[in-house]
Amino acid sequence: MTTVGLLRPEGHPEDDYRRIETLLGSDIRVDSVPYEGPGADPERLAAGAERLRLAAADAVVWATASESFGPGWEEARAHARALALAAGIPASSTAIGFVHAVRAVGATRVAVVGGYPEDVAGAVVRFLRAAGVEVVGEARAHGGGLPLPELVRAADDPRAQAVLVPDTSVPTVAEVPEAEAAAGKPVLTGTLVTVWEGLRLAERHGAWADELGALFVRRGPRDVWEPGRRGSGRE
Q1: Quick one: CA torsion of 231, 93, 181, 106, rounded to 10 degrees?
Q2: In sequence order, what are the residues at sequence separation of 6 or more whose Cβ sits closer than 8 angstroms to the Cβ of residue 30?
Q3: How many degrees, rounded to 5, is the angle at CA 225 between CA 223 and CA 227?
Q4: Which domains, from first to last, does the chain contain?
Q5: What's the rounded Cα separation, in Å, for the pair 5 and 60?
Q6: Fewer Cβ in 10 A, N or C end of the chain?
Q7: 1: Cβ–Cβ under 8 A, 6 or more apart, which residues?
Q8: What is the pLDDT of residue 201?
Q9: Chunked mean pLDDT (size 10), the chain, 235 residues
Q10: Nearest to 108 by CA among 125, 94, 128
Q11: What is d(CA 173, CA 211) in angstroms, rounded to the nearest whole number?
């Protein structure tokens, strides 16, 4: 059994995490500890991480995009190291997970879409660029509740090799396959990336589920990911 522990802002729904857990199989568990107030409080996060460790979590991820992108790439990595030291288990964040996930699907150029205020959207772009990811397309999601494929089409750019939807506060998982088929490229969403990052930290290899899109598709050394192709991937 591999357990991914999440530090989740109070009010963020768990629906996507439960769906991911179910699709990945009975030997993977996604546990979470909600917190109130400013999530960047080191003591608050360390206490939550300790609870997850005691509940047998193998790794912990700060499961929020808007806050974890804000400090910037270098500070986010330092924050993750401090959290890991305090918790005694590997630690990361949604923001750091996006950098690793982009690399995992073989992308270097991305488009980003989200419903964030302008300052938060700018922080996301700066974070990715500082980590070596080129942002070639951006879009703001106006009028919440749009289907994921429509959000992706609004943000997509012909130069982008993947589309990023960082928000962890809205469910997206059920629509990822349709969005990838529409865009013809990987679509990485906040909740998917957060769980994937936890599994990466736990060194849990072989967690595959075609229903979860390109990030969880089985990969071979010479595979090239194609939308709708089962068992394909990009190394």
Answers
A1: -60
A2: 3, 4, 6, 17, 18, 20, 21, 195, 198
A3: 145
A4: 2-96+191-209 (3.40.50.12500), 97-189 (3.40.50.12500)
A5: 4
A6: N
A7: 27, 28, 29, 56
A8: 95
A9: 93 91 91 80 87 94 92 94 92 97 96 86 94 91 74 90 93 94 95 96 86 83 42 36
A10: 128
A11: 9
- Cα–Cα distance, 29 to 74 (Å, whole number): 30
Query: Is residue 142 classed as helix, strand or coil in its secondary structure?
Result: coil
Look-up of token digits 């959207």: 121
Cα 211 to Cα 26: distance, rounded to the nearest angstrom: 16
Tokens of 64: 């929020």
Residue with tokens 């360390």: 46
* Whether the Cβ atoms of residue 58 and residue 2 lie closer than 8 Å to each other: yes
Query: Counting runs of H as helices and runs of E as strands, what totals does the chain give?
Result: 9, 8
* Cα-based distances in Å from 195 to 37, 78, 79, 212: 23, 20, 19, 11
pLDDT of 38: 64
Distance CA 54, CA 116 (A): 34
Residue 223 pLDDT: 44
Q: How many CB atoms lie within 10 A of CB 31?
A: 18
Give pLDDT, residue 144: 57
